[in-house]
Amino acid sequence: MASESAGATDAVTRHRRVLDWLSESLWTVVVGSFAVVFVAGLTQVSFGAFTMTLVEAWQAVFNPDVIFDPQAWRHFVFGSEFPVLGTELPEMNRRSLVVWNIRMPRVVVAVLVGMNLAVSGAIFQAVTRNELASPFILGVSSGAGLMILLTLVVFPMLSAVLPLIAAAGGMAAFLIVYAIAWKNGTSPVRLVLAGVIVSTVFGSLQTGLFFFADDIGVVQSAIAWTTGSLTGTGWEQVRTALPWTIIALFLSLVSARQLNVLLLGESTASSLGMNVEKVRFLLSAVAVLAAAASIAVAGIVGFVGLIVPHMVRNVVGSDYRKLVVGCLFAGPALMVAADVGARLGLSVLLGSDGQMPVGIVTGLLGGPYFLYLMRKQERMGEI
Amino acid sequence: MSHEGPESMDRGRPVSVSTTGDASEFEGEDLVIGYPSAEEPVVDGERIRVEPGAVTALVGPNGSGKSTLLKGLATQLSLDGGAVHLDGRDVHTLDTKELARKLGLLSQENVSPNSLSVEKLVEHGRYPHRGFFDGLSAEDRDAIERAIDLAGVDHLRDRQVGSLSGGQKQLVWIAMVLAQETDVLLLDEPTTFLDLHHQLEVMEIVETLRDESDITVVVVLHDIDQAARYADYMVALEDGSIYARGPPEEVVTEELLADVFEIEATVEATDWGPDVRPIRPLHEDAPTGSPSDSQE
After folding, report:
1. Which residue from A95, B184, B222, B263 has the highest number of Cβ atoms inside 10 Å of its Cβ?
2. H helical segments located in chain A
């Protein structure tokens, strides 16, 4: 029927498809977010307790001896003890050391956390077909939070592996929620309800544990972990999060079409031959992996996973092939910008050298922007 | 898509559409279908054999179990008893994608993101034909073009689904199941809630499928007139049981309308099948009517 003409128009349609995917709106998100990350990141590495002038700082950032030194990068990415690829940090001047070994990794961690949370939230919004879904909707944050408190208060000897325990607690809570919701299969509503109930129970236990903390330092540490904080993160945290981030983000990118089909509703997806239960569980697992990777390095950073997918959807539409890519850029933009506020905000406002948990700033920064979008757009929040 | 349609027939009915042997055999035996929440099954022990390559309409009043039967046939509901066979194989044992390449279902209500473009929605019909990493093949693109063409939605292809009228949306969804290119197509009340123009558009597509392809179509219709006009065979359900089956001339009678639909009506044979003229509803004390309970 149409096969002869299809051959001729093949190149044209393929061209059109690529253009369509790399649409103008997606470019806007990518370029805009990249600019925010760049400016915020540069701010972050230029200021801090170790004073240097802007020029000195930027010279250190763009120091070719570091940027083009494979040994330095091998140290950043693999550390000193990794077999074969790992190596010691090469000699560099003091300013480069501060910028590249102390301030820069914090920006990189923020980028990874932002990517993970935004993509995780986007996946959960499709899986539950719920606009209010976030990475933590299926109990992940409550499980992680409870384990953090348990570790800090009851088992302080385990605090060296706290990040891993937190991530594992989040995943365990997700499995509990799934098991509770399962009855001849699940449904988005059952999953969300089970998630809310499990979160409430774990949340109560977590709050209860605060009573047993007798040291203010423990309480502050617990608050930093449960609100999300990037204070003191270095290349080691990058190394912790990077492999899981790569796996989770790769899987979400290639699953974009499955997510699109899930958006057509359960009955359509299954009549198209999708094994809905299996796909839903596997996609949730990918999203939980991404969330757990970010919890392990930054604690429970709220809000990013809820609002970034909405912001991106608002610009590029609900096609997940664009949405996931957009989230990969917009998530870091919010996270890095918020961390500037968390790290430098108090010293600018109050002159103190304290730092806030970044989770507080993501809410303060993201919330008003989200409200502004909501006032401006009629159809905000639709999946 | 092959084109060995029975072209010599003027209106295509009630002559059994002689199948070329390519059309799929589709039947259900001893079907017991219910919902997990209800004790009693809605359909209890029915047998249905669909004429290959023809259009079969399921009709019946609200709650008679026609949609339930269709969902059971399409594996959307698991069977409490019996089996559904497609070309001799039990559909409930087929791999989900393999089944979706043979059996398509258009549900009564469909949801999609508003910003999705029509072309992208139709593209999803190719889901069962694509592997996890596969892009669109030339074959996929041809199928999409054919489906868009057949459903007559070419002028809408770049529109967003959210901007379409109810009737246009239905045509686009039909294009999506057509792109699936299945041997058997199940349509659940495709004309309900549509204006007359779009009802006729939808039925015209069904007519084209009957005349120009081997696709076996089973369609649930609310409107018995429409069923009588477009279907080769009709199956009338009452309270989950099959009350009558056969060509429209045999099924659509004044007696059936009184028993199953509880209306008094006259039926007149015309060139395009029996024409039903409803007169008034029959009430419970009427001699032939049985009390109906709605069992949605």
Report:
1. B184
2. 3-21, 24-46, 54-61, 64-67, 70-78, 94-97, 104-127, 140-149, 162-181, 188-210, 216-227, 235-254, 256-262, 266-271, 276-298, 304-316, 320-349, 358-376
